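Quick note —
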Amino acid sequence: METSELVELLSSEGLRLLDSLAPYESKDDVVRAVADLRKAGHSPGLVAAVLSQSRLRSKAAAKFGPFAERMLFTAAGLEQATRLKVAARHAGRFQEAGVKWVADLGCGIGADALAIAALDIEVTAVDRDEVTAAIAAYNLAPWSNARVENADATEFDLAGIDGVYLDPARRDGVRRLNNPADWSPSLDFAFDLATRYPTGIKLGPGVDRDLIPPQAEAQWVSVDHDVVELGLWFGAVARPGIRRAALVLGEHGTAELTADADSPDAELGGLGEFLYEPDGAVIRARLIGDLARQLDARMISDSIAYLTANTALATPFATCFRVTDTFPYDEKRLKKELAQRRIGTLEIKKRGVDVDPAQLRKKLSLKGDASATLILTRVAGRHTALLAERVR
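Predicted structure written out below.
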């Protein structure tokens, strides 16, 4: 978003116009809206700005719920923004640690700062991008204990601050930056602050684990089976004795698996009646072994993140399948087996097998009114096809 576009959007006319729009639903709606708004005499720049925001608000509902209806966004800011229910967990750590004033360095559109302010903690949100800082200021305007600074996070004066939160920008606007030294602020800068303040650092869930300092609590977070972040916590906002955690949020509510280190793998064993697919956060946190022992389950093969058991136990940390058929993986055999069962709807999962599910689906020529889940994996080291059904 350009500064001129933001100026038009933040005008009284722009905000009234934005709030008057019907929820964004399709491109056809946009075409009609452009024609109607231009006919009403609104400038092309303002029309583009409000329709862009309407689209972003619609997309943001998944992260912010009804709050999205009164927030402003940039496309990049929304993509990196923390989901509100996850941001609330971040803010809770500072509250429980007794932190009174947090600096949110690299605040983006202000999602985490919003959650912190909502707990009556003073928060100063800092972003070096002028447009992003202005949008954060708009989003944080309802909270008198929040202020926004358009400044470089690495040069901001932290006098009086007693807690720090950072979400380093990992893109330069076009491409993903792989070197942590190129992030803004850099990971070294963030780790240095963590030696002096209670500090939280949000990173991508696939970050190199070798970068995780031994003193950090590393918490992988998934929302509705999608792993959304790795949070590193230091000092008073880290929990004693916890170095690895998998936080799982979904229809079941909130559940967490924690340990003081990566868990040892479970023992290998024969395929049972049930197969468990651990949540991605559990896999990233390397707590599969602990989960297996909770479920009285075993691993089906070395380095394969599937567990198997003879009984089904309810758990928020894995999806359970009942195995109905099993045979060696061969495309011709598989096509024949599916045709015999009249399976026309097929969910395909794979681990440890080099196959493109989309291409395989075309080759299978699925027909019929039955449905199933196909799991392609290795069992005791051998490529195997499992037909299964979800256990609800």
